[in-house]
Amino acid sequence: MIDQIKGLHHVTSMASNARENNAFFTDALGLRRVKKTVNFDAPDVYHLYYGDELGMPGSVMTYFPFPNIAKGRPGTGEVGTTVFSVPKGTLPFWRERLVAHKVDGLKEDEAFGAKRLHFAGPDGDGFALVEVEDDARAVWTGNGVGADEAIRGFHSVSLRLRDEGATRELLGFMGYQPVDTHDGVTRLAVPGGNEAGVIDLETLPNIAHGRQGAGSVHHVAFAVENREAQLAVRKALMDTGYQVTPVIDRDYFWAIYFRTPGGVLFEIATNEPGFARDEDPAHLGEALKLPQQHKHLRPILEQHLEKLEG
User: Fold this and answer.
1) Can you give the residue range of the structural domain that contains 284?
2) Does a cis peptide bond (omega within 30 degrees of 0) precede residue 92?
3) Keywords, A to Z (predicted)?
4) CATH number, domain with residue 177
5) How many domains does the chain have?
6) Would you call 271 helix, strand, or coil by DSSP?
7) Has residue 235 got a pLDDT over 80?
């Protein structure tokens, strides 16, 4: 069994409009944009990162906003809901704030003993806020949300699967242990990890496979402390029969990827070096940062990429 995984690192999705996406996460949700860069494989498309003050692992939602991308079709084989942690008793504040920002899909419920507020992102993305007691993670308060209400980071993601068996076995191998079941949902958590250590498995045998597009999660990334731990995880997965990519330098972390039995793309990402490697922490996400191989494109990209503010 793998014991190096600490919980979620980041979640990466696709969007149809960069400016609208930026406004939603910074204005409505009050998160900090911690990096403004471009897609390694398509440099004419932004890669935007939102999180807490420093973009700590377990807090970062990232997006590829592809102009004119078709809307995704929800289904199985993908992440269903990305859930953020907020302090106990703050859902009324968040409902009022999201209503004021004209956010769609508001619905309250309770699961596993905790109150949740579901809502939709600009492209129909599935999100929820869950009340968590004593989540002491540092927060970002620079976008008009106070420290008493601010999002702490991720709580969990749910995976929609036609059959949970093989994915549950994989997660068990990755260190996740069963916690509980509720309304047919299986909850797993990684002991001793970060505060974003929960995965929910939804079994939907009669639902078709999803079609990725705007509003879809592209992949979910799990955190390991460093490259040594990542290499150990890679070897363990490959020894078990998974096809895992070589280590890829993503500037702010090193990454490996593999496809799960249920169809979801998993990434294992390092906690090092972090988002302050090329920007002062006081100015994260302000300047356009380019990967080394795309730096020669700066004059073209600065003209082509849509302005996010103003």
Assistant:
1) 8-304
2) no
3) Dioxygenase, Oxidoreductase
4) 3.10.180.10
5) 1
6) strand
7) yes
Residue-wise pLDDT for 138-156, tens only, equals 999 989 899 999 999 999 9
Residue with structure tokens 């592209």?
A: 218
- Specify if 1 maps to a domain: no
**How many residues are listed for the chain in this entry?**
310
Task: Write the pLDDT tens digit of every residue in 87-143.
Answer: 999 999 999 999 999 999 999 999 999 999 999 999 999 999 999 999 999 999 989
> Model pTM?
0.97
β-bridge pairing 153-161 and 78-87: antiparallel
Distances (CA, A) of 197 to 176, 179, 180, 244: 8, 11, 14, 22
Q: Find all residues with CB under 8 Å of 207, minimum gap 6, and list them.
A: 75, 76, 160, 162
Distance separating alpha carbons of residues 198 and 157, to the nearest angstrom: 7
Q: Which two tokens stand for residue 9?
A: 């690192």
Residue type for position 269: A
Mean pLDDT value across the chain: 97
Beta bridge partners of 159: 79, 201
Per the CB < 8 A criterion, the answer to whether 47 and 64 are in contact is: yes
> How far is the C-alpha of 307 from the C-alpha of 310, rounded, in Å?
7
Residue 3 lies in a domain: no
303: pLDDT strictly greater than 80? yes
Whether 309 maps to a domain, the answer reads no
As given in the structure block, the two tokens for residue 39 are 């897609």
Does 305 score more than 80 pLDDT?
Answer: yes
Sequence-distant (6+) residues with CB within 8 A of 2 are 173, 174, 175, 232, 233, 236, 237
DSSP 8-state class, residue 149:
T
